[in-house]
């Protein structure tokens, strides 16, 4: 760089010199970062990479600083007023940087500063900005730093983490002395409180669980910021700079210090790779990035677990370790706080600790400030059953857990061995914890976090921190199971009566409460195995339940519940509940009313624990309908009448509700509907449809009606229009263009050639007004499509797939089933979802000369499961094997070449085909 300034240095300030310096530095930064990335790939050292990047940044800033002084401003010999120190602060001040990190700088000036300091700072900042760095900076003297640090914890934390990059060392030392004496001294407690409150607020904002399947590596619970918080507090309170120093002080054991370094190194590796891959400061480990990070870190697939799932399991185990370290660290602070409290307060706190009461019936545990703790350090060695008993006592007396107790539990995990697992008392105590009437989730969660649950039930241990690589499940498998148990507890306590009225009405009537809790804890315990997790889970239940103390009948019941835990939800969402065979087949599978109730409760808890927004009123309504249709079959209240009798009765009931119509008009209207309509549509709906059809006097026009149902979280759009085989496809396209998610479709043909179609979509807006406006837009879009004013490919092209959806391998599966329904062939379609898919599928079904009687649409994150009840054009089932193969082949092509499907829409029928004038 000196050569750029010329032999005498006078050319250093020229625009040409600046451009040359910028070009040289860009190349140096590019080459330096490339080297850092390559070394990270080779040695895997995340913390080392962060240090290398910080060192590279230091060298760059020193170089520019020295060049500016010597060759731009010609100020090699500085006066006392021209002194300046450039400090790295914040994360950079700790000597670590990620590739996309902000560069936080403090330009520290003496009390009286000449213009030179500002000129050098300006030159440096503009060069850094031109190099593409995000620079946060402040220019202050020492007095200003001290004053602002007293009132602002963010500034105080930034200066706590300081590092001299270039400039006057004496000025840097002066800031350090005054900061320690005038800011830090005597203020540990307020700093600790502020940092922990800041951490809690951050967790609440980002989702107060460390088991979100798209975690934020920096800000999320169990992420780097949590480790930073521990480091800040340690440095501030204990005046130390390393985790090793905390071992010397007795805060951490040597093992825990190693855990700290391991977690820090892993999280830095993930974060640096994230930034390198995306080329920006991306902190969220999203689905589309996880496979690439897993590949870079060297993970490989195992039977039942993909490489990305093994990587994410490791991530969540590290996040759990961060939580453990936080609790241990806070326990040490609390203990020290009690010892160091001044005067009478210290005496009172120590007195309260000495007066900690024993728990009736045991000498091994006592209560300290409403938290259970151990009487001495040999409690678990004397009796390993105490490793389970402590959780039972805490549940029985509604106590939280003292950090000292949890710390000792973690250090005693080797005592959870084969002998303890078969100990009858230990298993009985565990069952009491699982079925606790107050808060079983809390105690199971503490048991899981301490490592006891996974060791006591090794099958559960295999799914701890296990992620399912899909967009449907929001949590790890163990977190999902614990949330399922929590939902059952809330149902029992009546807390979900408004949202789940059916299950709340009979939850306290069930006779097999224990079996239900065990089934919920185990229903997904076999995830991550090569075989079907329901089948493997049922086998695990048969082996485990006798050990837990369940008798033969209860064991068989738990095994059945685990085996069939998806049956009710799949039937409710994928089958036509108006088809009597659906109800009869499901009843045969369930067999008894008790089993029906248990399976209904388990299903509700399971769906509710998948993630926010997964449970909704529409799913609740489907489950209620299936339950209420099945219950009379199981109790003998259902007497099978002939189809002809049921049709005649339904027709008479509707005629009675239309008694105020003229007789001739009433009979003419009844003749508009085929038998299937009367047998499948509820009477109140039939009356509403009658009013709508009566008002649609122009039989060539489009008529629509919309209504919302806040309880079911759906909006229903009813359409009356001249029929055409592609009508359902256009309806699906209109909904897709509006971003509306179809969950159900009923398709009826009237005898006068019109179609009566009822489309149900998930609710999007909280108010009915907004929801009705959206439904109106769908109706307007449909009309424009029918009249040729809009083209479907154009509308669908504006819709983009969800971020990350393409990274999921969801091979299409199409099956034609003639056993599910007596009247219809049922086409089941599974595959990767995308905008306009339902439109393409229904269009393809029309091309195959099939009529859709009803459609049942379910979306599970990136995967769609669509079920169509169809007949051929003369109303018969598809019985030909060759035609069934042709259907499967044609619908597979929709997934294989979706762009071809969209282009094929150019052959959509003209408006005249629908009988609608444009």
What structural keywords apply?
918 residues; alpha+beta; Beta Polymerase, domain 2; Four Helix Bundle (Hemerythrin (Met), subunit A); Hydrophobic Seed Protein; 6 domains; 4-stranded mixed beta sheet; 11% strand
Number of domains: 6
Strand order of the largest sheet: 9-10-12-11-15-16-14-13
> How many β-strand runs?
16
Question: Could you give the distance between the termini?
Answer: 73 Å
Low-confidence runs: 339-354, 899-908
Helix content: 55-70%
Derived structural class: alpha+beta
User: Strand share of the residues?
Assistant: 5-15%
Number of helices: 42
What is the residue-mean pLDDT, rounded to a whole number?
86
Structure description:
The protein is α+β, with helices and mostly antiparallel strands and 918 residues long. It has six domains: 10-185, 2-Layer Sandwich (Beta Polymerase, domain 2); 207-340, Nucleotidyltransferases  domain 2 (Four Helix Bundle (Hemerythrin (Met), subunit A)); 356-456, Hydrophobic Seed Protein, CATH 1.10.110.30; 479-485 and 492-640, Hypothetical protein af1432, CATH 1.10.3210; 652-695; 702-914, no CATH class. It is 56% helix and 11% strand. The chain contains 42 helices and 16 strands. The radius of gyration is 34 Å and the shape is globular. The chain starts with 14 loop residues before the first helix and ends with a helix.
Indicate the topology:
Blueprint: H1 15-43, H2 46-72, E1 85-89, H3 90-93, E2 103-109, H4 115-130, E3 135-141, H5 142-151, H6 153-160, E4 162-167, H7 169-184, H8 188-206, H9 224-238, H10 243-248, H11 254-278, H12 290-296, H13 307-340, H14 343-354, E5 357-358, E6 365-368, E7 371-374, H15 379-382, H16 386-396, E8 400-401, H17 403-410, H18 418-421, H19 424-434, H20 440-449, H21 452-456, H22 458-461, H23 477-492, H24 501-506, H25 513-522, H26 533-548, H27 552-563, H28 567-574, H29 580-590, H30 593-608, H31 617-635, H32 643-657, H33 663-670, H34 675-680, H35 683-695, E9 703-709, E10 714-722, H36 727-737, E11 742-749, E12 754-762, H37 768-786, H38 792-797, E13 813-817, E14 825-832, H39 837-847, E15 850-860, E16 863-872, H40 881-896, H41 898-904, H42 911-914
Parallel strand pairs: 2-3, 7-8
Antiparallel strand pairs: 1-2, 1-4, 5-6, 6-7, 9-10, 10-12, 11-12, 11-15, 13-14, 14-16, 15-16
């Amino acid at each position: 760089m000196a050569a750029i300034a010329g032999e005498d240095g006078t050319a250093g300030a020229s625009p040409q010199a600046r451009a040359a310096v910028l070009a040289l530095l860009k190349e140096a930064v590019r080459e330096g970062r490339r080297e850092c990335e390559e070394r990270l790939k080779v040695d895997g050292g995340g913390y080392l990479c962060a240090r290398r990047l910080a060192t590279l940044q230091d060298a760059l800033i020193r170089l520019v600083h020295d060049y500016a002084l010597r060759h731009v401003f010609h100020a090699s010999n500085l006066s006392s007023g021209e002194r300046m120190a450039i400090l790295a602060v914040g994360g950079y001040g700790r000597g670590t940087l990620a590739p996309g990190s902000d560069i936080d700088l403090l330009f520290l000036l003496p009390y009286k500063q000449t213009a030179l300091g500002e000129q050098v700072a300006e030159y440096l900042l503009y060069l850094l900005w031109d190099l593409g760095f995000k620079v946060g900076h402040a220019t202050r003297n020492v007095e200003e730093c001290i004053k602002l640090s007293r009132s602002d914890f963010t500034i105080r934390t930034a200066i706590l983490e300081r590092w001299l990059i270039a400039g006057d060392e004496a000025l840097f030392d002066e800031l350090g002395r005054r900061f320690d004496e005038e800011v830090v001294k005597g203020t540990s407690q307020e700093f600790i409180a502020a940092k922990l409150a800041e951490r809690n607020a951050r967790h609440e904002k980002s989702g107060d669980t460390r088991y979100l399947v798209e975690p934020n590596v920096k800000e999320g619970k169990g992420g780097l910021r949590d480790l930073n918080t521990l480091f800040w507090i340690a440095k501030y309170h204990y005046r130390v700079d390393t985790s090793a120093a905390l071992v010397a002080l007795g805060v951490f054991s040597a093992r825990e210090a190693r855990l700290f370094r391991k977690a820090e190194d892993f999280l830095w590796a993930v974060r640096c790779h994230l930034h390198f891959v995306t080329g920006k400061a991306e902190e969220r480990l999203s689905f589309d990035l996880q496979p690439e990070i897993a590949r870079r870190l060297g993970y490989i697939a195992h039977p039942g677990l993909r490489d990305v799932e093994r990587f994410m399991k490791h991530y969540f185990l590290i996040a759990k370790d961060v939580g453990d370290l936080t609790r241990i660290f806070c326990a040490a602070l609390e203990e020290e706080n009690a010892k160091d409290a001044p005067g009478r307060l210290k005496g009172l706190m120590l007195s309260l600790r000495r007066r900690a009461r024993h728990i009736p019936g045991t000498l091994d545990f006592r209560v300290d400030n409403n938290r259970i703790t151990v009487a001495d350090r040999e409690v678990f060695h004397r009796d390993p059953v105490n490793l389970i008993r402590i959780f039972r006592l805490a549940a029985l007396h509604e106590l939280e857990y003292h950090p000292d107790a949890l710390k000792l539990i973690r250090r005693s995990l080797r005592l959870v061995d084969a002998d303890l697992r078969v100990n009858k008392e230990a298993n009985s105590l565990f069952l009491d914890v699982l079925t606790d009437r107050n808060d079983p989730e809390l105690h199971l969660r503490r048991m899981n976090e301490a490592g006891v649950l996974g060791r006591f039930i090794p099958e559960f241990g295999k799914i701890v921190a296990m992620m399912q690589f899909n967009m449907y499940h929001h949590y790890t498998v163990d977190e999902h199971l614990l949330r399922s148990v929590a939902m059952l507890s809330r149902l029992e306590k009546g807390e979900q009566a408004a949202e789940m009225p059916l299950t709340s009405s009979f939850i306290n009537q069930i006779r097999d409460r224990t079996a239900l809790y065990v089934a919920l804890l185990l229903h997904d315990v076999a995830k991550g195995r090569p075989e079907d997790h329901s089948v493997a889970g049922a086998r695990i239940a048969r082996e485990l339940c006798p050990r837990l103390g369940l008798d033969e009948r209860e064991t068989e019941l738990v095994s059945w519940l685990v085996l069939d835990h998806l049956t009710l939800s799949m039937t409710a969402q994928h089958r036509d509940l108006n088809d009597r065979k659906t109800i009869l087949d499901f009843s045969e599978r369930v067999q008894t009313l008790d089993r029906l109730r248990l399976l209904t409760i388990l299903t509700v808890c399971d769906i509710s624990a998948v993630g926010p927004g997964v449970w909704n009123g529409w799913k609740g309504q489907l489950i209620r309908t299936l339950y209420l249709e099945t219950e009379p079959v199981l109790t003998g209240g259902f007497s099978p009448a002939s189809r002809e009798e049921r049709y005649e009765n339904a027709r008479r009931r509707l005629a009675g509700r239309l008694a105020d119509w003229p007789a001739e008009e009433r009979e003419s209207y009844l003749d508009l509907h085929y038998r299937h309509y009367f047998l499948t549509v509820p009477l109140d709906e039939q009356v509403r449809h009658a009013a709508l059809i009566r008002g649609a006097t122009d039989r060539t026009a489009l008529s629509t009606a919309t209504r919302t149902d806040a309880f079911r979280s759906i909006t229903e759009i009813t359409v009356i229009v001249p029929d055409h085989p592609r009508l359902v496809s256009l309806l699906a396209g209109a909904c897709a263009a509006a971003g509306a998610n179809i969950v159900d479709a009923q398709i009826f043909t009237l005898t006068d050639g019109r179609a009566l179609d009822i489309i149900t979509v998930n609710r999007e807006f909280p108010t009915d007004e907004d929801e009705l406006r959206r439904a109106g837009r769908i109706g307007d879009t449909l009309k424009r499509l029918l009249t040729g004013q809009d083209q479907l490919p154009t509308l669908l092209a504006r819709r983009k797939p969800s971020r990350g959806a393409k990274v999921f391998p969801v091979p299409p599966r199409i099956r034609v089933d003639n056993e599910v329904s007596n009247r219809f062939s049922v086409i089941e379609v599974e595959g990767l979802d995308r905008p306009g898919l339902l439109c393409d599928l229904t269009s393809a079904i029309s091309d195959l000369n099939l009529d859709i009687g009803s459609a049942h649409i379910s979306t599970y994150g990136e995967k769609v499961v669509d079920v169509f009840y169809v007949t051929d054009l003369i109303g018969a089932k598809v019985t030909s094997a060759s035609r069934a193969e042709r259907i499967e082949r044609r619908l597979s092509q929709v997934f294989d070449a979706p762009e071809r499907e969209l282009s094929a829409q150019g052959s959509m029928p003209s408006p005249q085909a629908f009988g609608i004038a444009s």
